[in-house]
Amino acid sequence: MTVEDIKQKLRAIPGMDVLLAQDWARPWIERAGRETVKRVINGELTAVRRRMLTGQEEDVSPERIREACLGALTEAERPNLRRVVNATGVVIHTNLGRSLMAAEAVRAMERAARGYSNLEYNLAQGVRGQRNVHVEGLVCDLTGAEAALVVNNNAGAVLLCLIALARGREVVVSRGELVEIGGSFRVPDIMEFSGAKLVEVGTTNRTHIEDYRAGLGENTAMLLKVHPSNFRIEGFTAAPERKDLAALAHERGVVFMEDAGSGLLVDGELLGLRGEMDVRTSLQQGVDLITFSGDKMLGGPQIGVIAGRRAVVNGLRKHPILRTLRVDKITLSAFEATLRLYRRGALDDIPTPAMIRIPAETLRERAEGLAAALKGRVAAQVEVVSVEDAVGGGSYPEKPLAGWGVAVSGHPAGGAGRLQALLREGERPVIAGARDDALVLHVRTLQPGDEEVVVNALAALQPEAGPLAGKGECACE
Ligand SMILES: *Cc1c(COP(=O)(O)O)cnc(C)c1O
Fold first, then answer.
1. Ligand 1 pocket check: which of 92, 173, 185 to mutate, most ligand atoms within 8 Å of Cβ?
2. How close is the Cα of 230 to the center of ligand 1, in Å?
3. Which of 453, 466, 373, 450 is nearest to 412 (CA)?
4. How many CA atoms lie within 13 A of 4 on its CB side?
5. What class of enzyme is it (predicted)?
6. CB 304 within 8 A of CB 293
7. How far is the CA of 301 from the centre of ligand 1 (A)?
8. Whose alpha carbon is nearest atom 15 of ligand 1?
9. 1 near 55, Cβ under 8 Å?
10. In this structure, which residue's CA is closest to atom 11 in ligand 1?
11. 292 Cα: distance to centroid of ligand 1 (angstroms)
């Protein structure tokens, strides 16, 4: 191209005013604001000019520019935090938002969000109240604790307890329980940060009551038991019973605390989880103070619960660090609603426990339904397969959950890795598993309506695997 050609082409690029006046721009101006639309168009025009000047062929027709702007606007206006389809079979998927909220909890959150509330207001006396009171009684009812306190999350709960009860003193922990959870919560690090001194006892696989006894000294404040949430040591192992640890702690006048991680509010058998200790039983066996998450196995919002003996919990209530771990009203309302469901015994109205205990037969039927829907729409090999699901969230490492799913192979768009990547690009991204170069859709974690999303997404994938359908249109609704 000559310089004259290039100049000619540059002049042919429609100007900002022309583009802004076009029909397609109006709904976007209403939706995103004039400045945003201008910024996006400007970005596109600059990119087009740059590509032209570096000699790359460039179609500068108004249609082509419009298409590019629509694509960029759709991208710019798409929420960053988006809903996805969890087809991994991992119920408490930390990367996908852990627990889903019960319908009752969602309604409670909406009420708390839309209206003023008695969050910190004592209605009977017309004076300032405590936000904690809205859930304390329920936690005590459900766990048998004498008192309870909630904070932002379980990591915060552990930190608060260590700072308030063991700062500058020693905490005895078994070497078998010095865990790291999700790469960001490491017991030794939290301990150091709290100012408590970690005293490790026993070995990785075996710790005896005598080890604990030998670890307790003049300056010991606490004996801490940590749930080894995301790993399992098998074979030649030993750990003392809680009641023996409690007896030892109380004989020496130190606090016996347990970081239970997930915090089961019902017998583990009810979820088909053998060998998992529930909070009530831990406390019955002599634990003074227990902490656990609200959004793991409990199935509520992100929150950290501290429950146990009144004297110990009361010692935490006025600690200044509590203010930095404060729970907001939306969370508190969702937690209260979830606890009320537990008190009513409505386990199947709480998504996380409900998904954990779906019978295998039901999963198989769902997988067959999904496979049938796919077979009509997708030119690929579709097969119902048994899969290993998981509780997840560093909650139950012992055994995978037996589940069912659908394997998709021989899809014209590509193999498992390619399909996984393409499904992540969709308007409603689908996160799926893979096995032996087949895409595997685990049905346990699919929500109502997700099957349709999955079928449509797989049906829309083209052999050449371009962008998914729907891009570029104003998805105003
Ligand atoms: C998950 C977990 C934590 C951290 O809880 P968050 O609610 O994520 O802050 C701490 N301790 C144990 C044993 C856990 O399993």
1. 185
2. 10
3. 466
4. 0
5. transferase
6. yes
7. 13
8. 261
9. yes
10. 261
11. 7
Tens of pLDDT, residue by residue, the chain (477 residues): 677 877 887 888 888 888 899 899 999 999 999 999 999 999 988 888 888 888 776 677 778 888 888 988 988 888 999 999 999 999 999 999 999 999 999 999 999 999 999 999 999 999 999 999 999 999 999 999 999 999 999 999 999 999 999 999 999 999 999 877 765 788 899 999 999 999 999 988 889 999 999 999 999 999 999 988 666 677 778 889 999 999 999 999 999 999 999 889 999 999 998 888 999 999 999 999 999 999 999 999 999 999 999 999 999 999 999 999 999 999 999 999 999 999 999 999 999 999 999 999 999 999 999 999 999 899 999 999 999 999 987 656 557 899 999 999 999 999 999 999 999 999 999 999 999 999 999 999 999 999 999 999 999 998 854 444 434 334 333
| Minimal-distance CA residue to ligand 1 atom 1 | 261
User: What's this model's pTM, rounded to 2 decimal places?
Assistant: 0.91
Question: Using a 6 Å CB cutoff, which residues line ligand 1?
Answer: 153-155, 158, 181, 185, 226-227, 229, 259, 261-262, 293, 304, 394
What 3 state SS string does the chain have?
CCHHHHHHHHHHCCCHHHHHHCCCHHHHHHHHCHHHHHHHHHHHHHHHHHHHHCCCCCCCCHHHHHHHHHHHHHHHHCCCCCCCEEECCEEEEHHHCECCCCHHHHHHHHHHHHCCCCCCEECCCCEECCCCHHHHHHHHHHHCCCEEEEECCHHHHHHHHHHHHHCCCEEEEEHHHCCEECCCEEHHHHHHHHCCEEEEECCCCECCHHHHHHHCCCCEEEEEEECCCCCCCCCCCECCCHHHHHHHHHHHCCEEEEEEECCECCCHHHHCCCCCCEHHHHHHCCCCEEEEECCCCCCCCCCEEEEECHHHHHCCCCCHHHHHHCCCHHHHHHHHHHHHHHHHCCHHHCHHHHHHCCCHHHHHHHHHHHHHHHHHHCCCEEEEEEEEEEEECCCCCCCCEEEEEEEEECECCECHHHHHHHHHCCCCCEEEEEECCEEEEECCCCCCCHHHHHHHHHHHCCCCCCCCCCCCCCCCC
The amino acid that residue 96 corresponds to is L
Q: Which atom of ligand 1 is nearest to the CA of 182?
A: 1
